[in-house]
Amino acid sequence: MPASRRILSVDVGTSFIKVAEFASTPQEGLLLTNFGVASLDLQPGDEASRPAAITATLRELLAEHRIRPGPATVSIAGQQVFSRFVKLPPVDPGKIYQIVQYEAAQNVPFPIDEVVWDFQLLSAREGGEVEAMLAAIKGDVLAEITGAITAAGLEVEIVDVATMAVYNCTKFNYPDLEGPTLVVDIGARSSDLIFIEDPHLFVRTVPVAGNSITQQIMKEFDLSFADAEQMKLAHAFVSLGGAYEAPEDQTAERVSKIVRNVMTRMHAEISRSIAFYRSQQGGSAPVRVLLTGGTCVIPYTDTFFAEKMGVPAEYLNPFQNVPVHPSVEAERIARNAFVLSQAVGTGLRSALTCPVEINLPPPQIQEDKQFRKRYPALIMAMVGLVVLVGVWAGFLHQMAKITEARSEEISLRVNQLGQINGQIAQVQEVIDRDEARLRQYQALGGKRTAWLRLFDTFRETLEPGMWIADLKATDPQGEVLAGAASLGNAEPVAGLEMRILAYNDRVATPEEFERIIRTMEADPDGEGPEEALFASVRTTRAFLRPFLRDASVRAALKEPIAR
User: Which end of the chain is less congested by CB atoms within 10 angstroms, N or C?
Assistant: First the structure.
């Protein structure tokens, strides 16, 4: 088989689920490669179990027929979707959406923010009017269905409506239809009537279908729903009445009459719908009927409608222009063809441009699609970010190398300076030691000259004609220290005893002599008082020689002088 694109189609009916796998190729268009059909096994009114049943049934179908999960186009039963055909006034094409939005708000029987809706422009009418189809479904119902499908491992891409899928399937397989055509899709809970009259389209759903027959059998035979369904499958056919021979099996005869009664009710609904279509939509009576759906398999259904409506009635063949891969059994196709119209129409949505392309994806799926559309930009941004981070990482790495090299240089320099500092410290220690010695030497030198300075202080105080005749040192106790004999004595010099002589002709009176000696305490330079404090001055008035004056002076030093 040539290279192809794989397409998954899922039709979620009220009682059955159909999964079809197609290959879309330029040579063959849409090619059926695999499919599966299974019942949901739900009792009427058991809607709470529906999501779980959809998920479980889908998983079983995929596993049984070895169909790989992937992106899928989904069709939803027409009875769950509100459809309305409206005529739009002639307006500028740019304002079409605003007009349709207004019409949707006016016609949809639910708050517009609680539904997911879409529209399709169908055809232009006289006077510039445009016919449009509105389709809406409650958001929670849609989310429940798509959530159940997603839980089975499929990714919902498009949400189609079963009636539109049948319309697209019919247009693709019967491109040359002439005259108005009515497609009757008889399901389990409702039947969809699709009026095809180029360029017009009209859809109506009636509440008469296969379950109506089952419920009548339940009442007639007092059976459960499941048993009545089994009896319908085993004995049901449309009783033709009139000159036709009744069957010998009494059960089959009773069931056939029930089927005919239900089909008669359906015909009445179809007749009212045709009348509405002709009067309100300006359409024409159909010239043919195409039958599809699970209930149309009941024998003689085509004969019944052909007789009642007076036009040819035949079964819609969804594979008239859709080839089937040889690996798919022909018998299986023949047995299930009447329920695969929606699956084929849904598959066409993913392969070709179709006449009607209603799409009702839930908001979450729309957001995911928008996010996926931004993948390239996000990837480029991520690449740019990675490159930027790489550049910064390279820059930082280079800076780290430079910093490390600089740090090593600084560390080496610090070590060198540390060594130099150590050498300086050693030199400074030598200098400090030498300075200490110098201070000691300076102190010793000062001590060596202390006696000379002290002696000069006293000598300079004396007047001419006066002199120091004797000078003795005393200890702190006032005892005179002997000269050579006291060199080993550690006691310091604390005072002095002096003998001062003067010539009489130079010092007139004894008082003057004493005054001069007293001035030694008041030396103007301050050296005298700093060096010694005079304790007493004793003058001798009896002279051994008439020409001399004699005085003894005892002085205490402010600070003792060490020897």
Answer: N
